[in-house]
Every structure is written in C-alpha cells, then in structure tokens.
C-alpha cells in the first residue's frame, strides 16, 4: 500500500487518469485501486459504489468551471449588470471551449458520464443559474437592468445562450464565425435586459 | 409495373414509407422499387444514387416546415415586427414538436438522415434564416424594431432560440415548464429588438 494517506481527492485524481486511459465503458474501481497501489476495498471505504465514484469525479470536473465563474460573479472589478453578465457568459463559453478543445478524449469521457447522471448535471446548472441570478439582481439594483424576476430571467438567459455552453454544441465551438455569433446573441440579450 | 405514372413525388412517398418500416440503416432502393411495383432501374432513372434519393426525401420532409412558416412570414393577418416574429417562432417550435412527438420513429429516421447530409440542412437553415430576416426587415421598416442588419440579427435570433427548434433538444420539448421557458426567451429577444 502507498505510504501517502488515501484521501478522496487522491482517489478522484486517479479516477480521472484511469478514465482518460481506459474510457468510461472499461474503467473499473479495481483499475483505480491498482493505479493508487491500494486494495479496491480501500477505495470503496471512501466511495461506496462505482456509481458514487463516477458522480464524485464528474462533480469535481464541473466544479472547476463553477469556481472559475464564481470569481467573475463576485468580482468587484467588473461593473454591475451588462459588463458583468457579458464577462460571465464569455468566461463560461471560454471554459467549455477549452475543456472540449484542449483534451477532447477527457471531454468525451465526461460527456458520457454526464449522460448517466442527471442529478450531478442538475446541480451544476442550478449553481450556474444561481450565479446568473445574482448578477441580474445586482444589475437591477444598480439600475442597469430592467426590474425582473432574477431566477426566471437567469433561466431565459441561460437557455438563449445554450449554443455556447451546452456540450451538445461542442462540434460548432471551433467553427468560423462562432465568436461573431456569440457577440450577436449576447448583444441581443443585453439589449433585452435594458431598463 | 404499376399503371400509375412513376413521378418523383410517388417515389419519395414510397421512400418515406420504406424508411419508416425498415429504418434508415436497412432501407434500400430495391425496397422502394418493390413497394412501388417497379424495377429499381426505374427508381434510379429519377434519382441517380441512393444518397440522392435520401437527400430528396429529407429535403421534402424539411420543406413541409418551410412552407408552413412561409405562410406566417407572408401573412398580413399578423402585425409586423414583434407579433409576426413571435408567431413565427411559436409555429416553428410547434411544427418541430409535432414532428418529434406525433411520429417519433420517423423523426428519429430523419434525424439520422440529416446527420449524413449537411448540405440539405444548411439549405433548410438558410431558408428559415431568410424568412426571419424578412420579418426583421419588415419590423424595422414599420418602426417596430430597432434598425439592425436583418441577416445578422436573424442568425442571432435563430441561435438564441436553438433550444426550441434544434432536434438535439427534442427530449426536453415535452418537459414541464418548456412553454414558460419558450415565452421567457422570446420575451427577452423581442425586448432586445425594441427600437
């Protein structure tokens, strides 16, 4: 057994590596344990089932984007309302594009895992919607957005920009003109939120 | 051989029926010829390849939606600008939802064919974008929309409503709350087009 303490984080890191190597269909808990030099029982003490381990690693992957966007949401550097919402949407698009483009195999792996775990995705979307809602609320309070229900408006903004964050659209994210399209859609939405 | 004249339209009707029965992977030109009581050579005289026949039948399927929406585009009953654009988007969503919901097998069949024929899809989207562009132009001229480049604005409107017409989203079209989401997104877009 490895001398380093077996933490959930070390298990999740090894799981990501195993998923990358074997793909989601073949990767097993035994592979993860072997990569860590521990028994599979030790892994199961932290994650009770293979499904729980897969959910945790997917949540960790989505969590990176959530943290990145939480920074933008909380940042005082970007003015409230339109500036912040545009920065947030651009950063989301950028994060998703990088995930898809920089490591396509891992992206495909997580896309497959996501299809199997609607709870993890719903939680992820709820967190992102909460951030957009806060940006809208802040913009309304600053008089930069028309008064609106933050939660409902956040859902509309998120739905209207699906093309730039939904993994189903990953194939078009590298297409010519996608940047201009993103700007056109964002402009249209921000005009729609004007007081 | 059947006594009725063998028109392209009769061939396409039979092709749709054969696709529905055997699925896109198994359906052959011989099946189509057999359904019509003619030789496969007679079918090939109208459509030179199996790919050409499949493209034509897909185009015919998409053409039905185009014609329906052309009516809305040209109709003098709906006021110019916001009213017409809302009616057009609602009719598009409705047409797609019905295609997906009323005959899911045929919808899946055509979705598979569409994946194989980007030219047919591009043509379909160009036709729809042209219609939205005309509605925007009309709305701008009537002073109901802010002056904007019709083609570019049409693309932004179409992209922002992807969730309500892109077949990739068909699974969510029957979900609870989708109607409210459609209204929220459409409201946001129409507010963005205000003068």
- Considering the protein shown, what is the CATH homologous superfamily of the largest domain in chain A? Tetracycline Repressor, domain 2
Flag low-confidence runs of chain A.
Answer: none
Q: Summarize the helix and strand pattern of chain A as letters.
A: HHHHHHHHH
Strand content of chain A: under 5%
CATH-defined fold name of the largest domain in chain A: Tetracycline Repressor, domain 2
Distance between the termini of chain A: 63 Å
Helical segment count of chain A: 9
**Largest sheet geometry of chain A:** none
Protein name (chains A, B): TetR family transcriptional regulator
Keywords (chains A, B): DNA-binding, Transcription, Transcription regulation
Pfam families (chains A, B): TetR_C_27 (PF17935), TetR_N (PF00440)
Summarize the structure in words.
Chains A, B: Keywords: DNA-binding, Transcription, Transcription regulation. Chain A folds into 2 domains: 1-48, Arc Repressor Mutant, subunit A (Orthogonal Bundle), CATH 1.10.10; 55-193, Tetracycline Repressor, domain 2 (Orthogonal Bundle). Chain A is built from 9 helices and no strands. Chain A has 195 residues and is an all-alpha fold. In chain A, helix 1 (8-22) crosses helix 2 (29-36), helix 1 (8-22) packs across helix 4 and helix 5 (82-102) packs antiparallel against helix 7.
